[in-house]
């Protein structure tokens, strides 16, 4: 502890602090911010409907372990996958704080953790975003560059990395490819249409309702089908017409149960189906011989398989940040909801009421 040797004066105090900052300052500046003991969080004790999303105002703030950062979340993303963990479609231990991504300020740093400082503005991908604070692996956190808002990052982080990985690696989309993308006005879809157009693909987007279809069209999609309308119900026929009877080179299907059979029909001979979600329910077990007549390839990717290493994670986050910074990729926030309204966000997502990405302000 610094012990004053001389009588204090403003000049001496400044000099003293320069040589040896008082402990309290050093702690605040370099090790941790002032962090409360408890916080607001939404905890799911057991699987079920939106009613199991229980807000508590006295959840213990986590302590970052080795390799972790404690982030004070400014904004968190809400993804359809969160509903799968809520219902139990995807198993995860409960009680659980849902939310796979957040953006905010590093409030404290765990032991043996390098590359970050308290006060850094970061985005992270892990679990526990429906809370004021989250302890997250530093390996899955990244500093947000100047000039990009937390909101823009959250509207495109998990969703955008998913799209980038799936169009670059799962099926490397080529200029001139016909691509069918379902739920094209959603969190992932809104970004996908823009990214696919930038790659030179011919894009067919499906969406439910006139407003969503107009949004998809405004992004430059070549063909937009309202698959909930009377006219668009037979969307396979429209896809075939648009592609001269051939079918598309690739289908990106995250709707699942309601679309998978149509997707098999709409894909061309030797085409690919990238099935990556279950918005309408899971696809039933698929008999492999169904793929034979057209020699179809099926992929069932998950983003996390493409960003496992730090190198992969940084590659895709840099790609995304460059697209955002250059203005090539626009984001669309459906609405920023307060943490208290989390059940409503899930209802809106499952009720197909969202366009673009819903965000949560913890
Ligand atoms: N595999 C991965 O790693 C990965 C990563 C990210 C996302 N995903 C998947 O990608 C999909 C999109 O995710 P997102 O967070 O961006 O969600 P989203 O697209 O914003 O929301 C889902 C959309 O699916 C459509 N949908 C069709 N049938 C539906 C039904 N019966 N119930 C509810 N929605 C239905 C709705 O759009 P319309 O009204 O236009 O039909 C709805 O807006 C999800 O299936 C998600 O699980 C997978």
Automatic annotation (TrEMBL):
Domain annotation Enoyl reductase (ER): ranges: 48-360
The protein's matches in Gene3D superfamilies, at most eight in alphabetical order, are given as: Medium-chain alcohol dehydrogenases, catalytic domain, NAD(P)-binding Rossmann-like Domain
Is NADP found in the keyword set? yes
Task: Write the record's keywords in alphabetical order, separated by commas.
Answer: NADP, Oxidoreductase
Q: Which Pfam families match?
A: ADH_N, ADH_zinc_N
InterPro entries in the record, alphabetically?
ADH-like_C (IPR013149), ADH-like_N (IPR013154), ER (IPR020843), GroES-like_sf (IPR011032), NAD(P)-bd_dom_sf (IPR036291), QOR-like (IPR047618), Quin_OxRdtase/zeta-crystal_CS (IPR002364)
The protein in question is named Probable quinone oxidoreductase
Annotated TM spans: none
Q: Which GO terms describe its cellular component?
A: cytosol
Give a GO molecular function annotation for the protein.
mRNA 3'-UTR AU-rich region binding
């Amino acid at each position: 502890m610094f012990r004053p040797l001389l009588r204090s004066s403003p000049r001496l105090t400044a000099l003293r602090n320069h040589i040896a900052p008082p402990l309290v300052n050093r702690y605040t500046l370099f090790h941790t911010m002032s962090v409360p003991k408890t916080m607001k969080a939404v905890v799911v004790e057991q699987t079920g409907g939106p009613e199991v999303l229980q807000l508590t105002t006295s959840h213990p703030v986590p302590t970052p372990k080795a390799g972790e950062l404690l982030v004070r979340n400014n904004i968190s993303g809400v993804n359809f996958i969160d509903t799968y963990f809520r219902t139990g479609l995807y198993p995860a231990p409960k009680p659980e704080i849902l939310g796979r991504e957040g953006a905010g300020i590093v409030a404290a740093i765990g032991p043996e953790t390098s590359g970050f400082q308290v006060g850094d503005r970061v985005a992270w991908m892990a679990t526990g975003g429906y809370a004021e604070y989250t302890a997250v692996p530093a390996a899955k956190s990244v500093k947000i560059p100047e000039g990009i808002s937390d909101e823009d990052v959250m509207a495109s982080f998990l969703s955008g990395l998913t799209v980038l990985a799936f169009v670059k690696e799962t099926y490397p989309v080529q200029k001139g490819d016909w691509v069918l993308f379902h739920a094209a006005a959603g969190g992932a879809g809104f970004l996908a249409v823009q990214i696919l157009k930038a790659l030179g693909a011919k894009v067919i987007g499906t969406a439910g309702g006139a407003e969503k279809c107009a949004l998809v069209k405004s992004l430059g999609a070549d063909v937009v089908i309202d698959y909930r309308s009377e006219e668009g119900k037979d969307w396979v026929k429209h896809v075939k017409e648009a592609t001269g009877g051939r079918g598309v080179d690739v289908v990106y299907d995250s709707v699942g149960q309601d679309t998978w059979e149509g997707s098999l029909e709409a894909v061309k001979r030797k085409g690919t189906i990238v099935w990556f979600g279950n918005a309408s329910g899971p696809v039933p077990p698929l008999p492999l011989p169904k793929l034979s007549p057209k020699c179809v390839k099926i992929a069932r990717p998950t983003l996390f398989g493409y960003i496992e290493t730090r190198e992969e994670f940084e590659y895709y986050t840099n790609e995304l940040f460059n697209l955002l910074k250059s203005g090539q990729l626009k984001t669309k926030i459906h609405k920023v909801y307060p943490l208290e309204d989390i059940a409503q966000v899930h209802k809106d997502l499952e009720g197909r009421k969202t366009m673009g990405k819903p965000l949560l302000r913890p």
